[in-house]
Amino acid sequence: MRVLVVLRVVGTLLRYFGLAFIPPALFAVFERDWTTLLGFVGAGLGSLALGTLMARAHGRPERVFRAEAMAIVAGTWIVVAAASAVPYLVAGLGPVDAMFESMSGLTTTGATVFTHFDYPRSLFLWRAETQWIGGLGVIALFVVVLPRLGIAGRQLFFAEASGAPSEGFGAQIRRSATWIWALYAGLTITCAVALIAVGMAPFDALCNAMATLSAGGFSPNGESILGYGNPGVEWVLIVFMFLAGASYPLQLRVVSGELRAFFRDGEFLVYLAVALLAVVLLLVLLAPEGVTGVEALRVTAFQVTSILSSTGFASLDYNEWQDPAKAVLIFVMVVGGCAGSAAGGPKVIRHMLVARHIWREWTLVLHPRAVIPMLHNGKSVSGFVVRSVLALVLLYFGGYLGLGLILTIVETDFVTAFSASLACMGNIGPGFGVVGPEGTYASFSPFAKTLLLLAMWVGRLEIITVLALLHPRVWSALRAR
After folding, report:
1. b or e along 199-215 (b: 16 or more beta carbons within 10 Å of the residue's beta carbon)?
2. Which of the two ends of the chain, N or C, has the fewest CB atoms closer than 10 A to its terminal CB?
3. How many structural domains is the chain composed of?
4. Cα–Cα distance between 66 and 204 in angstroms, integer?
5. Per-residue pLDDT reduced to its tens digit, 289-347
């Protein structure tokens, strides 16, 4: 792996990321918030300067190898998160808290350390923007705006994108990514307009819309969606959170005229079935507590779509629910959204392939000579993909367990520790206990926050990318050029 090649490309990406600080800086000027403006200007100029310096490293790549592409993707998330943390530092957060909030935004986790919400509005706009940029992936955006990367752009995108079979990007990667981002922006604007139509203030509508379509969950309201007390807002967000957890390339096909594409995609049908099943189970479980009628449907549908899509908005404190209802939410957390969506977690398609693999092995016990192909949407899935999926799902659950055990030993109670592990590595945000929908991660020690922000990073990169970079062969092959 050529280190200078990695530095050059990461620097190029960081330099262009500096442009992201312009909108909140202009809003800070409009608000006459000069202190916060200083943070945005400093972060933007710092990104430009450092990125330019790194981009001048020797080693202009005609070709980027697989290990280099993974290093660029992983390094870009770290460097961009560090740059994004500067406005939080200026606002008064400590270094670890600032990095935690920044990483949570870019990975669309939505876990926060904010204990009060009287910060300048420009900072809340920045929180929402970081989630919106991270929703489809930093690299996917740069594939659109940096055609000069050439073949590197294509390789970087596939190093970041899900390896599970799904309705993905086509051969013309830049054109496909451009159309996906156009759909993403269109849905965000539509969501914001719908929120304004049901009574939300324009600024809040924009921030919540960006947090919704990115499946992020950062709201400018300290009580999340509960703070608005508006059932119409919740119904609007139910629709758009569900779409945020569905495959964007699949939605693009529907918008392009293939109206039946939703109902021909196995992963989307399972995603829909899981959502409906969870809503029905919660309706049954919550009925004895007096939650019935249309209100019950709204409450249950909101929480299910929020957690299934890994958005993490809250319309109530589900910490107060009985354990069986909480168990349904945990099940939904573990499932996650679709591949090609903004959602975190292992993704529905991987659970489907694991289930089909188990069924095939079960059948082969009875009929050892049988030939049973693995199919998805009528297409054969290779053994390599199946093995990769099995390994990734195992790593996710191993990560949940390992991080939960560490947090339980060094930090907090069992429920809080394991739900924080699941919420951060699955990029969901809120969990149970101290980190429930009305809680924050502020009480965790710097050590625990560092572990959790690394879990967000690892979960967003779907684990394999990070593990691949730790392979001895990668380190033994390091060279400057």
Report:
1. ebeeebbbbbbbbbbbb
2. C
3. 2
4. 41
5. 766 788 899 999 999 999 999 999 988 889 889 899 999 999 999 998 988 888 888 88
pLDDT digits (tens, 9 = 90+) for 440-458: 999 999 999 999 999 999 9
The answer to whether position 209 is within a domain reads no
pLDDT in tens, 348-373: 988 998 998 899 889 988 888 888 88
Decide: 360 and 374 in contact? Cβ < 8 Å.
yes
What is the four-CA torsion angle of 434, 438, 440, 444, rounded to 10 degrees?
Answer: -10
> Does the pLDDT of residue 168 top 70, yes or no?
no
Last residue of a domain, one of 161, 189, 221: 161
For residue 277, CA distances in Å to 194, 283, 328, 335, 338 come to 27, 10, 10, 13, 17
Structure tokens at 384: 């390599």
**157 has pLDDT over 60:** no
What's the longest Cα–Cα distance across the chain?
74
* Domain-located, residue 443: yes
- H-run or E-run covering 375: strand 375-376
Residue 230's φ and ψ, nearest 5 degrees, are -130, 105
Question: What's the domain range around 49?
Answer: 1-161
Say how far apart CA 315 and CA 306 lie, in whole Å.
10
- Is the CB of residue 310 less than 8 Å from the CB of residue 218? no
Mutual orientation of helices 383-410 and 414-425 as an angle, nearest 10°? 140
| 48 — pLDDT class (breaks 50, 70, 90) | very high
Query: Token pair for residue 476?
Result: 């033994």
Q: Is position 260 within any domain?
A: no
- CA gap 52, 16 in Å, rounded: 9
Using the CB atoms, write b or e for 78-115: b if 16+ within 10 Å: ebbbbbbbbbbbbbebeebbbbbbbbbbbbbbbbbbbe
Rounded-to-integer distance, Cα 224 and Cα 437, Å? 8
Look at residues 2, 19, 12 and name the one whose alpha carbon lies nearest to residue 54.
12
Residue 21 lies in a domain: yes
* Per-residue pLDDT, 369: 83
Handedness of CA 414, 417, 418, 419 (dihedral sign): positive
Enter the tokens of residue 265: 């995609």
Residue type, 117: F
